[in-house]
Amino acid sequence: GVSINSIYNAPNKLFEYIACGLDVWYHEEMAAGQEYNSLVCWPKVIPLNFSKLEMYNVEELVEHEAGKRRFVDFTCEKACDNLITLICA
To answer: Residue 20 to residues 2, 5, 59, 87: CA-CA distances in angstroms?
Structure first.
């Protein structure tokens, strides 16, 4: 994006990819979503400078070490738990 909104807005894809267990690589200028950064535990969320990709070790970026999985629940079921409980009560 070219608007300032693309810097301060965490796109839905960030949360969708994490919920699916996929790594996310995003441009380092994007401010929103940085609290989800993880360079070791996966799914990884990694800020990168896309104009200098040659400076990164891709093998390290894609490595998924056993026992380093993190669970981030962004599913609609989790988000609706309280509502479902209220409706069904």
So the answer is: 28, 25, 21, 28
Helices (H) and strands (E) in the chain, counts: 4, 2
Q: What are the 10-residue block averages of pLDDT along the chain, 89 residues in total?
A: 71 86 91 87 94 94 92 78 85
In three-state secondary structure terms, 37 is coil
Cβ-contact 24, 46 below 8 angstroms: yes
Q: Are 83 and 63 in contact (CB under 8 A)?
A: no
Residues linked to residue 45 through DSSP beta bridges, in sequence order? 24, 38
Pair type for strands 45-48 and 24-27: parallel
pTM of the shown model: 0.74
Sequence-distant (6+) residues with CB within 8 A of 35 are: none
φ/ψ of 59, rounded to 5, equals: -60, -40
Residue 52 amino acid letter: K
